[in-house]
Every structure is written in C-alpha cells, then in structure tokens.
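URGENT: need a sanity check before tomorrow's submission.

F., can you look over the Non-homologous end-joining DNA ligase record below? I want to be sure the sequence and structure line up before it goes out.
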Amino acid sequence: MRTAQGEQQDRQPQRQAVEIDGHRLVLTHLDRLLFPATGHTKAHLLHYYAQIAAVMVVHTAGRPASFVRAPEGPEGQSWVAKNPPPGTPEWITVAEVPGREGPARHVVVDSPAAVVAMANLGAFEMHVPQWTTEGGPELHDRLVLDLDPGDGVDIVACCRVAHRLRQLLADDGLVAYPVVSGGKGLHLYVPLCPAPSADVTGYAKALATRLRAERPDQVVVTMVRAARTGRVLIDWSQNSSAKTTAAPYTLRIRERRPSVAAPLTWDEVDSCTDPREPQFSPEQVVERVSDHGDLLAGLADPARACRLRFTSQGGRDER
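Structure tokens as predicted:
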C-alpha cells in the first residue's frame, strides 16, 4: 500500500522557484526520496520547514549555527558543517565566531527564508549554542540538560529524571522547558538572564551531580558507556561554549523515520509510560503548533528570564 507521501511524490517537480521574505530561492531535488519507510521526500522536509520556520527562528536567531548535512537522507553520507556550505545565498547572515584557531564564519538562522535556504542545501539538522552573537560565548542566556538513556532504559526513564530536575530547578527559582530530542532522549532548557558561561556550566554540573547522589540507580553523569547501562546520563557538558544542541523544531536525520526536536508539556512528561508517545512526525509538530502555539515561548522571553538573577548557585526570584 502506498503512503500519502508516496502518492504525492509522483506529482512533485524536481525543481521549483519560490519567494520567501523577498528572497528568491530555487528549490532542487524535490522528488528525492529521503525516507523510503514513510515516503518522505525532500519536498516534504522543505514544506515542514516552511510551515514551522516562523516559530523556529525565535529560538535560533542570533545564534551561530552548525548543521548536519545529509542530502540523501539517513541512509546516505552525512557530515557536520560549521562554515557556510557551498551554495549559501549571499544574503544569509554570517557571524564571526571566536575559535582556538582564530575566528570562524557561521551561518545565523534568523529568518524563515534562511531556514528553508539551509534545508535546501541538505542541511536538515540545525544545532545552536546556548549563547548569542550579541553576548558572545562567555555569556550564556540559556542552560540545557541533555538526558540520554543508556542501554536497557528509554525516554520513559528520562521523563522520570526530568520531573525531579524540574523540582530542583524550581527550588532555585529556575523554570525548565522540556523538549523531546528527536532521538532517544530529552532536553531541558532553562532561560537565563545572561550569565558567565563558567557559572552556568558549574551550576549544571553541580545539579547533575546532586541528582546522581540522590538517585545512583537511575542517573549517571559520566560519559563512560559501560556505566550508563540501565541509567540516564545527565549531560551537563552541553553548556560548554564550544558545544551546540539540536535546535528546537529541527528535523533529526538519524532514523528510518523523520523526527523532530519538539517541545512537550509537563503533563506529557509526567504521564509518559510508553516510549513511543513523546515522538512526533514533522506533520504532527506542525499540527501541535497550530493547536497550542509555541510551547517554548517563555524560553525566548528575556523579560521573564531576567526576573531571575542567576548565580553559580542557581536563580533567585527578584520579582
């Protein structure tokens, strides 16, 4: 039986010129089948990004991006691209980012046109750091905890750990927003009034270590794979200025089916008992945003974040 995507594929052109935000783009290889299991073509992925871009750029604008390029889908060659890929339009915003070997040029995904343009180049996964080009890498305006299940556990275990982390963060006056990673795990984001990167990383490590001491049978904080069996890794190191995390609403190109780093409600986290539940297709994510809006809107609200003065010991409510 042919899928709806498969039926649409027969009618898709290979190339199409479009105009987004006043920028003309020629979308190419639209009929390329990227996910045979579901029938998703490149056209379907670009359509998703065109629909979600206005919400997504709220969380990527001002941040130097890196990409996972996979022009032929998960079964083809893929690689990480940090510099602007060949074919990047000249109107795309590019920022100079400090590095060990000198400044490096990074794309800043700051408009719907930029989202679609980069995806058109096969840069389907978009990753950003927890700092902006305005503040620089030494000043972070977000904290992230990456919950990664080890062998023998799944995202249900991540949800249980996330529930407790939410409580601990709330005790410190900090608000957490859950995002299913699009892979096996869960991301927790915390908006901050810009704070020194060393303070943010130190706090994240201390918080993870604290929960490891509280629940040694459920949590690890080491990257050693053998130690992670049956436990959830709380990866606090994602707060390093040199690291990036899959951006909210980005597609993930790792499995046989396209998935999305999609926001969850805390009710969904707390009620999770089936590892298949908190996983969404691109079409489902578009529908969720249409029904509920951006569940991460508070993450990008600087006024709300700056009511909490962050220190290396956590947040303090100053309202």
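My own read: Residues 42-60 form the longest helix (19 residues). The radius of gyration is 20 Å. If you see anything odd, call me.
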